[in-house]
Amino acid sequence: AARREAQRRVRAVLRRIGKRQAALLVLRHSGLRYREIARVLGVAPGSVGTLLARAERAFMCQHERMYPATVDPDGDEGGGP
């Protein structure tokens, strides 16, 4: 049940960030290398790292806005000790 809830939250956050940012995260999570991601998205291979970092930041910020009690300042999920 907890895994399904986590998956639901990830999908909800991905829907709220930019389409390209969501695609970057999904492609990387699927195991594609930077060169492959670049080819799929039509960007320079050298820019994939920067774009991924921005996408990760956007994901984390959006997650915090949507689910503020689920991540504490140390990055631990659950909000408890």
List keywords for this structure.
0% strand; mainly alpha; 4 helices; 81 residues; single chain; 65% helix; Arc Repressor Mutant, subunit A
CATH superfamily: Winged helix-like DNA-binding domain superfamily/Winged helix DNA-binding domain
**Overall CATH architecture:** Orthogonal Bundle
Output the CATH topology.
Arc Repressor Mutant, subunit A
The secondary structure category is: mainly alpha
Radius of gyration from the alpha-carbon trace, in angstroms: 14 Å
* Overall morphology: elongated
CATH level-1 class: Mainly Alpha
Q: Let me know the number of strands.
A: 0
Describe this structure in words.
By secondary structure, the protein is mainly alpha-helical. It has one domain: Winged helix-like DNA-binding domain superfamily/Winged helix DNA-binding domain (Arc Repressor Mutant, subunit A, Orthogonal Bundle). Helices cover 65% and strands 0% of the residues. It contains four helices and no strands. It has helices spanning 2-16, 19-29, 34-41, 48-66. The longest helix has 19 residues, at 48-66. It is elongated and about 35 Å long. 9% of the residues are buried.
In short:
The protein is mainly α. The chain has helices spanning 2-16, 19-29, 34-41, 48-66. It has one domain (2-66): Arc Repressor Mutant, subunit A.
